[in-house]
Each structure stands twice: as C-alpha cells, then as structure tokens.
Amino acid sequence: MRYILIFICLFQALPATSQESNQSQIVKGIVQNTKKAGIAGANVFIDGSYDGATTDRNGHFSFSSAQTDSVLLQVTAMGFEAKSIWLQIPLSESLVFTLIEDQHIIPEVVVKAGEFRIGNQANAALSALDIVSTAGSMGNIIAALQTLPGAQVAGENGRLMVRGGDPHETQTYINGIRVGQPYTISGNNLPVRGRFSPMLFQGTNFSTGAYSAEFGNALSSILNLNTSPEPEDAKTDLSISALGLAAGHTSRMGKTSVSVNTNYISLKPFTKLFKQNIDWTQPYEQWSGEAVIRRRSEKHALNVYASFAGERVGFRDYQADFARDVETHVRSHNLYTNASYTRYLANNWKWDLGIGAGYMQRTATLDTLQIPNKTKDLHIKNKWSKSVNNSFRYFFGLDYFYQNYQEKVSFGSITTPAYGFTNQIAAGFGELSYRIFPKWHLDAGMRYTLNTQAVSFLEPRAALSFQLDKQQTASLSYGIFHQQPTEDIQKFQPDLPWQMANHLILQYSYATAGKQLRLELFRKSYAQLVRFERGDPNFARPYHTDGDGSVNGLDVFWRDNRSVRNLQYWISYSWTHARKWERDYAFAVQPPYVAEHYGSLVAKYWISSLRSQVGITNTISSGRPYHDPNQAGYVQEFTKPINTLSMNWSYLITQQKIIHISVSNVLGNEPVYSYQYAQNRNAAGVFDRQAMTPTAKRFVFVGFFWTISRNKKDNQLDNL
Amino acid sequence: MKALLIIILTFYSYGSFAQTAYEKAMSEALQLWEAGNSTEAAAKLERIAAAEKTQWLPSYYQALILITESFRATDATQRAQLIQRGNTIISQKSALGSSSEWLVLKALSLTSELTADPMNLGQKLSPKIIETYQQALKADPENPRALSGLAEFQIQTKKFTGGNSDKEYKDLQKALSLYEKDQHKEPFYPTWGRDRAEAMIQKQP
Question: Which pairing describes strands A25-33 and A95-99: parallel, antiparallel, or unpaired?
C-alpha cells in the first residue's frame, strides 16, 4: 500500500518536474525607447500565466516559463504605449522591444507661438479662476485679460486690443461660434465691459496672433471662450452687491443640467456715493437673464446658451465740438443664442455643429439727434475632426456668416432713410497637426473665404514647434489674415475690399512645476487699411484702401505659483512699436490707442488664518500719442504715463458664503487717457479740447455671495 | 480505503493547488509592496490580473499601488502618468468586485490630482471627490474606507477654508468600529485605512 502511495505521489509529481526541467524556457531580452535607451521597470510577461519579469536599470529582463507553443507576450511601461506580440516558445534569440512614448498620457506640451491657453489643461498659462480673481477685473473677463502680455485696454473704451491692433481687430467666439456683440453698451469715452459672466467658461483660448485656420475675419486676434461640457449639480446662487442683485438656479436630471440666471445691475448707488466727473442723467442700468442647458452622454454633448439683456445709460458732459454740455442717452436690447452639438463617431471621428444668432437694437440720442440701429448676426459652423493616432490629427469644416446692419438718423421731425449693409461670408477651413519627428511638431492650415464683395482669398497658417528639452520649447507661427472694414465705415460704404495682415511670431517658453516663462517676438504687417479725410466717417467721404502699417514688438510673461507658499503672481510686459497709416491719419504714425510700453503685476495671496484671499493688480502704461492742432507738427504730443493699482479681498464666512471687496485705482491717480479736440476753431482761433478721464476716481465694489447646494463645496468664488 | 483517501487527498490538493497558486502569487505581490518594492509588486499584480481575468483584487491592488505612489511622486509628469494609469485600470475593471471599494480608489485618485495644484483645481475637484465618496458609501454604507476617506478629506479641506470638523471626527470614530466589524470572507479583501483613521483621531485638536 505504502508503495502505491509513493508511486502515486511520484507519478503526480513527475509530469510537473519533468516539464520544469526539460521544457522550461528562458525568455530574455531588452526593452528600449525609440532612442534605443533601456526602459527600467517595464513589465514583460506571458499573458495568462504568472510568468514574467520587470526590466532592470538598463532595460534587460529574463525569466523562465514552462509555457510552450505560441504565447502572447505583453510589455507595459509607465509613460509608454503597451505592446503585445505572439511568440513561438522556445525562442532562439533574445528579444528586443521598442516602445513608443505615450502622448495621450502626458498632455502634449505643444506651445504655439501667439497662443495663450487659460483653463485646466496641462499647459494652460492661467486657470479660469486666475482670471476672475484678478484684482481690478470686477468680474469682467476683458479687464482680467489685459494683464496678459500682448493685450491692452484703453481706459476710455474698455475693449480688448492686441499688439497694436484696434479693438475691432479682435473677434470673440464662444465654443468656436462668433459673438457679434461681446460688449455692453456705453456712451462716448465711457468704458464697456464684457457681456458674459466669467463663470460660464471653463477654458479660454486667447490668441495674440497667428491663430488657427478655424477662425477668420480678424486682423489681430481671437478670443475663444469655452463653456464646460459637463452638466452641473443642482444649486442656487444668490448675490447682493453695491452694483445690484443676481439670482441663479441650476437643476439637474441625470445627464442634463439646466441653469437659469437673472441679474440686475445699477450704478446709481455708486454714482450717488462717490464723486463723479460727469453728470449722470441715467446711471448705467442693466437687466438680463440667461439660460444654459448642458447635456452629455457617451456619444453626444449638447450645450445651449441663450440670453437677453436690456441696458440704458445717460449723461451730460462737455463736448468740445458743441462748446457746451451735451446730453447723451443710449439704450439697447440684445438677444443672443449659442448652441453647439458634438457627436463622437466611430474611428476617432468627431462632428461639431454650432449655431450662433444675435439681435441687437440700440438707440443713441445725442442732444437732439437720434440714431437708432439694428444688428443681426448669424454664424453656422460645421466641423469634422479625426485623430488618426497620437501624433497625427486633422480637422476640416465650413463656416457661414450673415450680418445685417441698419441705421437711421432722426433730427426733429426729419428722418433719413435707413442705410447700412448686409454681409454674407462663406468659408472652408482645414488644419492638420503632425508630430514630424519626436521633437518637432507642425500645425498647418488653410482657410478659404468668399464674401459678399465677391472677393475670395486663401489664407495659409502654420505653426512649427521644437521641444528643446522637457521644459523648453521654441516655436514659430505664421499666417495671413483678412478682415472686413469696421461697422462705422461699412455702414456708409459697404463695398470696400477687406483689410489684410501678416503675422510672424517667434516664441520661447520655459515651464516647470508652478513656474512659467514666455518670451515672444512678433512682427505684423498691414495692407489695404481703410483711409479717409480728416474727421469722422460719413457718407460724403471718399474711402481709400491704400493704408498700411507694421507693428513689431516683444512680450514677456513670467508666472510663479511655487516659490512662496500660498502666493501666486505673474508679471507681463509688452513692448509694442506700431506705425499705422489708417483712418484719418495724415501718414503712418503710432496710433493714438496704442501705448508703447505696457506692463502688469498680478499677485494673489491666500491667508488661511483669515480664510481670505487678497489680491493686487498693478498696471503701468506709457503715454499715448495725440495730435494737438494748436501746435505745429502732427501727432506730436504724448499723454502722461498711467499707473493703476487695484486691490481685492475675498473672505469666506463659510465655504458657501463669501464677502468680496474690490477697489480700483487705490492710489487715486488722475489719469488722462487722451484729449479730444474740436473740429473747428473757437472765437479766439484756438481748437478747444476735452480731456478723457475716468468718470470716477475709484471704483469700489462690495458684495455678498451665497450658494445653496446639497453639495456643500460649491461656492461663487469663480464669479468674483 | 486508504487508496481512496489518497486519491481524494491527491485530488483535493490538486484542486486547491490552482487556488493556492493565485493566493501564493497574491501574497508574494503584497509582501513585495510591504517591503517597499512597489514597481515589482505592481508588475506582479498586473501579471496575476492578466492570468486571472475574473478576479478583481489583482487589478484593485495594482491601481491602489499606482495611486498611492502618485501621492509621493515629486515629478509632475510621473505623477500624471501614475494617476492616469490607475484611472485606466479603475475604468476597465470596476465592473468586477466591490463597486464601493473601486469608488474609494477613484476618490483617492482625484485627491492625488488635486494635491498637485490645490489652489487652481480645488474648486473643480473637491465637489467631485466628495460626491465619489458619497457614492461609495451609498454602494456599501458599512465600508470603513469610504467613511474615513470622506472624513479625512473634509478635515483637510477645512484646515484650508476653515469650519468645524466635529462631525468628521465622529465619522472617524464610527469608521473605527466598522473596521472592527469588517470581516470579508474573500481572501485579500482590502483592509487598509485603519491606521490612518487612528492617526487622524490622535491628531484631533
């Protein structure tokens, strides 16, 4: 019996051991990257067995396996694409695996010259929260953007200007759809604000030049604001501030969220409390409402935004041309809808359809003159994108724009016939993004535009970037851009050809954890700029399109979040050397809206013991040129440099209740933005002038924000 | 009779041999991790997971190791890679095994992502982390890791934003009693988290 037992045991054990000793095979080799350097810590194993090994420091591995015949060998390594291969065991020689770096894992650090990304992407220069918590911005996206290099905002107008371009040269987009009226209304020399609340947007793509072929009709820059595609959780937001009241509610049903916000703003209390430089007959007042619908499922994403706003403003101030106080009154109604739909298709295809429609009715009353106008905008966009693999992507699409502008002038009982223009633009675009060599990345695009003036043109765009090492990138961008003449000229003369610009940008960037340095050199040349005789545009003037110009400059941006705990700051400086022969300039001069030197410092510090964030923003700009007709020469004078210091303080009473205080121009400087001269001499033979100054020395904002939600973490810090 | 016994024993040992191969490999992997060799441990777990397609624990521990390592990573790229790899495993394998434990892992991975840049990511990720822990508790109200993880995250956040943490410390106490009761039959079922909860309670101000 015992023998049988031994026999059985032997018999049982035998096949296993004989297999071990006779057929166990050594599998060995090396795992390397594309540069033939060994990869350490890679896992090499036979799928379905426990057999395998990790590579040593030099990428070598060796293990034995009792498996025979064909086996599936798997190789995985951190930061590389996995590889699997069928092999016949036994092997006659050692194996060599070359793994490709996984570019999906590390968000590609392709920094394009001229492009500023703001959002949560890995290579974003700033986050959305950075923008809205910038002191002095008062919840105005545009005011925050002016602290970035290449951007300027003229105090008397509030609009974003990029690298020597006037405000019209920047187009605003939401989710790639053009926004016809991105600003609130104002009277002459009163600054406007961005129309959209920063809280709507998750990411911002701010291009300071040489932007993608996806966009067009902008000579200098595009600002693309992206809303979050994710549905939001249910919550109620309430706020009360020195400026007005706001209430919002979001409800969520599964994958869909619906938000409704209403807002009332009045500057009346502010103008009563603080000394004003002009006499308000109707301090700025706005009532608005918006609705946002977001729906997302695995294959689809839908985002619908709809808003309406009514605004009015009225004031009496001295006008050099009238040589007396004149009353101005502006009111407007604005409707805007933006809908975008994305469908994720098989084989890494993506289809985007977007529609934007805007309607604005605006009436300006100047003394006894009444000027009502209506603007209608429509943009339809169709875009297909394909990701072939990690190093090759492309997209193409079609754009259709419709724009209609109608205006009349009434003087007492006389009303002029309506005048204006209708534009229809069709465009096709395509762009490919290709990693040519491991360190070289190319974006090349082309845009074809056909417009109402029956003029068509091709616009090539390209960006080439070279990765010097993990932290440093150099890149070069180039493009040709066209834009229709501005509304104030087109309404009198609709058939002018489009203006043109060339951009060339060279960039160097250095980025490490929490720190970033960007240097950009740029050159922009203009052609076919519209010119007219001295004065404002009107019907009677002949218009020429032989204007030209160039802007050369340098931008510097430094940001540091790391060096000091709880402190974030950034510094930006722009040198803009602009010479343009456009509008009514006698010859090429530095345009009156451009400051040659412009710099900002933004700092934010979190004090945890006080549960507060304090911030300062300091902006310095050199004087701007102006023409003094009382003196010899042309555009011979400069205003004084302007320094503006703003501060803010946010205090979290609890996680969901916040008090926010913000003061602009803390030092109480009295900047003169520019001077406006009368068109004719007065009785003494002198041209009268009027200084353009802020309407109040300081702007003070105090507000209380309260969020009610099931999830106790939501708050309105983003809105400040 | 003896022969029958032997045959039964032989068969039994054969049957359990397959089981022990898995258990042996798992114990080896977890020992490697305890010994501080996390790369080797994660690699071994990956091999076990490839061989035992119906088991959830090899993948669970692989992801747990990757995410735990990500908290320690000083290099931003490496950190992102570890998190990304952990997340891939979570999304591929979380249909197997305890959904509550997978959700706790997901919350940990989000927390690691947040720690990389709390000032900018806090607003976006904090609600998600809390929601994920709450889902984990919903799936298994007795999961001590979900309860103590949520409490710890909220205590840490309140250090930054202020507020009273009494409720969280009570939850930690409750979690301790849940750890006591936590008797899962499945071998290698997660048991971690108790020491951390105890340490948190000791540090209670």
Answer: parallel
